[in-house]
Fold this sequence. Notes:
Number of strands: 4
Order of helices and strands: HEEEHE
Number of helices: 2
CATH topology of the domain at 32-82: Thrombin, subunit H
Strand order of the largest sheet: 3-2-1-4
Helix content: 10-25%
Mean pLDDT: 82
Amino acid sequence: MVKFASVVALVAPLAAAAPQEIPNIVGGTSASAGDFPFIVSISRNGGPWCGGSLLNANTVLTAAHCVSGYAQSGFQIRAGSL
Length: 82
């Protein structure tokens, strides 16, 4: 029982500590909607999948591993809101 109480006494302050926010991009700045109209979000099965760049009204450039081996009809492209 003493060991359990000791462990709780040591772990409780760690659990109560507020998590520290660590930025994903060091030195970056926040972007507003419309700042990068050429960036698209590629979704598959309703969830986020990959990103891409809009080259023209009908062409998106993305990484090969994002689309290779998947049916074209399974993707949704969202542009103009990022």
